[in-house]
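Researcher: Please translate sequence to C-alpha cells.
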Amino acid sequence: MMPYLRKLTAAVMVIVTLGSVAALHVSAQESDSTNLQLYAQSAVLMDAGSGRILYEKNGYEIRPMASTTKIMTCILALEYGNLEDYVKVSSYAACMPKVKLGMQSGEYYKLKDLLYSLMLESHNDSAVAIAEHIGGSVEGFADMMNQKARDIGCFDTYFVTPNGLDATAVTENGETKVHSTTAADLAKIMAYCITGSSKKDEFLAITRENNYSFNNYRETENGYTSGNRNFFCSNHNAFLSMMDGALSGKTGFTGNAGYCYVGALQRGERTYIVALLACGWPNNKSYKWSDTKKLMNYGVENYTYHPISEVSAAKDSFLPIEVKNGQTKRIGETAYVPVVVVKKDEREKISGVLLREGEKIDVICKRENALEAPVEAGTEVGSISYKVLGEVYRVEYLVTSQDIEAVDFIWCLKQIWKYYSNYNMI
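Model: Translation complete:
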C-alpha cells in the first residue's frame, strides 16, 4: 500500500445513521417467536433475492443432504459443460446403486439427457458419469463442487460425491470430512442456481420439466449414432403442483440423511427457498411436503418486498471531503475532493429485501472526515450499508472522483508568480 493511502486509513471516520440500528446481529429466528412445529430436524426459509433467512430451525447444524446434492452437480455441469457433448460411461459409473438409470460401461449419452436423468429421476449413475466428464474424475469434480460452495459463501458444506450418497473423504491436511451441509447453505446453493448463475434459465428449464425421453448412443467411425435403448423420466418433485408459483426443487433420501428437500417458490417480486434436512425416515415420506408448504405459506403471509431504492443515505454523505495540504487554485483556499458512489461488492446485485410488519431497512454511511494530500481519483473513502436488524444486505462504496496533488515547492512558486503578475497589472 502506498504511504498516502496508509494515512487515509488512519483518518477519523464520520458515521451518519438513518433509523435505529441493532448493536448486535439479530437473526430472523431470534426476532420471531413463531413456532411452526416442523418435522424436519433442520429447516430454513430464505429470501432468494437477498439471502435473508426469514425462519430457521437448527439451520446451521451440519447434516448429510442426500440427493439434494444434485442441484450443485447440475449447475456445475451447465456452467462448465456443453449440453451436446457425448459422455462415455465408465465401469465405476455403471456400478452405482439404485436409484439408477441402468447405463452400461462403454455406452455414450448426451450430457443434456443425463441432466434430465439426474434431476427428474435422481439417478446416481448419471451423476457419476457427469462428474467424470466435467471434472475428469469424481474427486476432481468434488473439488469443483467445494470451490463453488466457497465462492457463494457456503463454508459449512463439504462435497465428496456428485450424487449425495453417504461418504467420507480425507483432506490434504489429514482431516476426515463427511459429505454434508447445513439447511442455510443448501438454501444458499439453490438461490445461486435460480438467481445467481449465468445458467439459471437452463437449470429452471430442466428442473421444471414434467417428463423427458432420450436414448443411448454408440461411437462409430463417423461420430455417434443412436443406440437401441430408450429411457423415460418423470419429475418426482411433487411440490411443483402443490402451490401456485412453485418454481424448482430437488428431493433426497439416504438412511443416514433421512428425507431431504430444497425447493423454491415465486410470487411476484418475492422468491422463497425452503431447505429441509432430516425430515423424517420411512414411512414418513410426506413430511417434507407438509413442512415445505407450511414454511412457504408462512413466508407468503408475513413478508413483503421492499426495494433498496425506497431508502437513501443523508445528503451530506456525498459532500466533498477536505484534503489537507492539497493544491488549490489560490493560496489560502481549502482543497476539497468530490466523492461518487461505486458498486464493487457482490451484494450490489441485491435490489430489495423481504420484510415483515414493523421491520425496516437502516442506512449506515461511514466516510473519512478529512484526507491528506496527495489523493488519487478512485481512492475508497467510505461506504453506505443497507441493513435489516443489524445485518448488511447491500453495500455501496464512496470513492474520490479526481486527483488532488500535495502542496509543493513548484506549486508555491507558481502561486507567487501568479500573485505578483496580477499585482503588477493593477
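Researcher: Any highlights?
Model: Residues 1-31 have pLDDT under 50 and may be disordered.
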